[in-house]
Amino acid sequence: MIKAKNIKRNYGDLQVLKGVDLDIKKGEVVSIVGPSGAGKTTLLHILGTLDSPSNKSESSLLIDNVDIGGLGERALARFRNEHIGFIFQFHQLLPEFTALENVCIPAYIKKTSRAKAEARARELLDFLGLSKRYGHKPNELSGGEQQRVAVARSLMNGPSVIFADEPSGNLDSESAETLHKLFFRLRDEFGQTFVLVTHNLELANMADRKLTMVDGEIVSKD
Amino acid sequence: MEAAQLKEFLDAKAQQYNRPDFLEDDPLQIPHRFSKREDAEIGGFLTATIAWGNRKSIIANATRMMELLDHAPHDFVLGHGPGDLKALLPFVHRTFNGGDLVYFIESLGNIYRVHGGLETIFTKHQGADSMQGTISRFKEIFFELPHPARCTKHLSDPLKGSAAKRINMFLRWMVRRDGRGVDLGLWKGIAPAKLSCPLDVHSGNVARKLGLLARRQNDAKALAELDQALRAMDVGDPVKYDFALFGLGVFERF
Fold it and tell me: How much is the ipTM here?
């Protein structure tokens, strides 16, 4: 479902990615680990279509058989909203809106009807153990709960893949463990695909495959 | 306002103000006057540096600055002689004076001669998902030549708590590329997803009224909070909402 070939990214004369090849199948949970500066976040941003390779003509990125390089800005924004979910270290929720409203945002962007969006958001929040938190704003939620709301939001449009950058980096160990288990439940029950960048070795080792990056290259694919 | 309405409202406002006629009263018109990329970069950087206070006076003083640089800022920063710099001394925009301008020209000369230019520095030192550390690194490079202490206040450092409004605005001008004829989009090696909103008292107040921002100060922490909220609405191009926040604050007295 994700096929990346020869992805390179330069920042000036600094080569951050040196020709990365990747093949990720539907329903896989793949972790990317490596020291800071190895290119993990840059790779995640390129796979997530937030950034593009420096060698566009010599590289390719297919997600769900769509050639990402061939999409214009608008088509890309639409594709991103409908096919890709993101979870970041900091939850990126709107502070003055309730958990339910935050989860609905991607559906509103897609112009899903309000009733349908809210019904789906409730389902997701229930699944994530947040059924008593619909009307709470982010600052009324714990860090772990905020991050689960962000997970619900990332699932809203039924994305093909979820990219998560240090999703538990800001959580205590118990909340982190709850979140990690959740990723695998989502995979087991719904076949959800995840690509996770993490420094958390426990999470990395739980994944179906662990890709280790060093200096802009994937050096092992366990 | 509910989240659905808010997103729709801000998208509409961003579209309304992100149009070429916006340039008539905006300092961004200065770099638009140049056809050579380096001229637009340097003209834009110097204009953004003095972009505080009344907008008419910013445009008038930036125009004056471009006259002093013979309307060829790239040639000027590379080829000026000591006598050329003397002519800059009478320049003043509020607390940015001719002495500051002289150092800025010398530093820009160093940047284009030694570091490959503004684009190269920002591209080379860009973060994986943000430009705030990059701005701090840029400041170090910018002040690597001997300089009067007073000059440093004209370039903010996000890692020291500043929202760095002017340099974030300059980056918006150089990086955003939406084909609407407003932002220049000259620097294709940096993704718009990494940009932060130029946060000032106007955009900050509008963001608070809309529920996008809770923190009261307009500092780096507030910027981080606003970044998150804008990314929640458009993760690929969060800073397009600067047009909405700015337009609502300045034109609609929101």
Answer: 0.86
